[in-house]
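Priority: medium. Attachment 1 of 2:
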């Protein structure tokens, strides 16, 4: 894994000592200076006791007059909250009573690498363990690399990657291998493989900072993170940087225009600009499945062009029949188009291939809710909860899911889950959907208005989400729709 700054990594986290940043899956977390310094000290001595006196001397000088005991306790408590640790059942930080603390999880030191002009885009932590899902893409990538070598891969790769903005320059030979290995992971089924793919693209960028395709591919990888619960508000600025850099180097790169289209929709609410970017990407490479998928899900769907959206999504699946993400998106489009039998059939096919795909599990749950099929909705709700972190706040909901058959109990559990999640990811629209389906109209509208203050990306679904049908004629709802500035159909 290539890192641009020295520091430490543990679990899904990375601590960067020079920039004083803590990241989780490549996304920066908020942490005050004292908790950061405590974590830095503990990671520097993994498995060893770091005494309270050592931390006092490190964090507070003798001239500083503070309640040391209370300040240290507060800082450690804050640190545990940020990394999701528990004082009673610690995964990372163990308390040694009356003495100090010990970091008990595996820690890896991260060596610095030569910086390049794209060092602001981080790669997430890559777990050491290798799964069956990760071995297959790696094997495919290595086969591709071998074939390219046989036929003279510099020439072949250059033509395949498109024209370069640097006078049709050929990429560095050392950058091609990691780029192709990363490409093999663009349909990764888990955070671990996404991290591996991003690390490969960072490696390609380090080897050749003027090689455009890895930047665009990195933007696609960031987009994939949103399927696994990473907040889009954290991802979109990184996607913008990636696509901007890619197109600065090569304005004929289809992937770069496709990623920029996503950025214009979700970050800038620029519908006209996004449509132009998607059309440009399709013009440059009409057989790139991701572009068809992005155009279908991020523009045609939200603007109400349902048949065109379905056609583009079907084209993406035809071009890449092994992509579970594109197949799941087609199932969701059928749902929004109110083609419920087609949606259920498509989502069930996806879940046969990947039973744990979050997007498919969630879409199928919403479908059953819309059809008021409470036994199936309850079972699917239980499946969704099984993939949520095992935190106490979810325990009552998980217990209820086994017995929920009535709408009242079902929505009580669903709303409870959404209220717990919304504290962390600030996506209020799913909570609004739950309120709307439960018949709590005013709470649904209040929550949507709160979502509008945070520019929640899911507000793009206002015109298409069936759950909002009972709100559509309310003046408050109509004002929210007007703020989205949807293009006229």
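Attachment 2 of 2:
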């Amino acid at each position: 894994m290539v890192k641009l700054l020295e520091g430490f990594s543990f679990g899904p986290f990375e601590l960067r000592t020079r920039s004083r940043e803590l990241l989780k899956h490549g996304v920066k977390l908020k942490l005050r200076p004292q908790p950061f310094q405590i974590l830095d000290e503990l990671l520097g001595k993994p498995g060893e006791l770091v005494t309270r006196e050592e931390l006092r001397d490190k964090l507070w000088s003798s001239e500083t007059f503070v309640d040391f005991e209370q300040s240290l306790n507060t800082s450690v408590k804050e640190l545990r909250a940020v990394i999701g640790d528990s004082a009673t059942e610690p995964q990372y930080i163990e308390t040694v009573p009356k003495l100090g603390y010990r970091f008990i999880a595996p820690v890896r030191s991260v060596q610095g690498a030569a910086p390049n002009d794209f060092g602001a885009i981080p790669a997430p932590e890559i777990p050491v363990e290798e799964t069956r899902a990760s071995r297959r893409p790696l094997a495919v990538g290595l086969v591709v690399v071998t074939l390219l070598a046989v036929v003279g891969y510099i020439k072949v790769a250059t033509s395949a990657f498109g024209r370069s903005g640097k006078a049709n320059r050929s990429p560095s030979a050392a950058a091609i291998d990691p780029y192709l290995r990363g490409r093999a992971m663009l349909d990764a089924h888990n955070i671990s493989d996404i991290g591996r793919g991003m690390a490969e693209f960072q490696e390609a960028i380090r080897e050749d900072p003027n090689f455009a395709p890895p930047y665009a591919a990195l933007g696609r990888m960031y987009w994939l993170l949103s399927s696994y619960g990473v907040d889009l508000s954290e991802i979109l600025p990184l996607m913008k940087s990636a696509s901007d850099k890619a197109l600065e180097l090569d304005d004929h790169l289809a992937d770069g225009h496709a990623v920029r289209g996503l950025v214009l929709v979700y970050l800038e609410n620029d519908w006209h600009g996004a449509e132009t970017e998607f059309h440009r990407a399709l013009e440059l490479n009409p057989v790139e499945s991701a572009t068809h998928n992005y155009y279908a899900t991020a523009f045609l769907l939200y603007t109400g062009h349902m048949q065109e959206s379905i056609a583009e999504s079907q084209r993406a699946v035809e071009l890449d029949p092994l992509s579970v993400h594109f197949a799941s998106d087609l199932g969701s489009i059928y749902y929004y188009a109110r083609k419920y039998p087609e949606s259920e059939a498509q989502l069930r096919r996806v879940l046969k291939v990947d039973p744990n795909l979050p997007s498919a599990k969630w879409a199928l749950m919403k479908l059953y809710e819309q059809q008021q099929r409470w036994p199936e909705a309850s079972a699917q709700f239980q499946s969704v909860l099984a993939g949520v972190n095992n935190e106490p706040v979810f325990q009552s909901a998980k217990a209820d899911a086994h017995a929920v058959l009535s709408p009242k109990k079902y929505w009580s559990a669903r709303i409870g889950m959404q209220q717990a999640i919304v504290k962390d990811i600030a996506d209020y629209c799913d909570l609004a959907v739950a309120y709307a389906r439960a018949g709590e109209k005013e709470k649904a509208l209040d929550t949507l208005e709160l979502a509008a203050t945070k520019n929640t990306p899911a507000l793009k679904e206002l015109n298409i989400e069936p759950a909002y049908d009972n709100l559509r004629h309310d003046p408050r709802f109509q004002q929210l729709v007007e703020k989205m500035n949807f293009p006229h159909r």
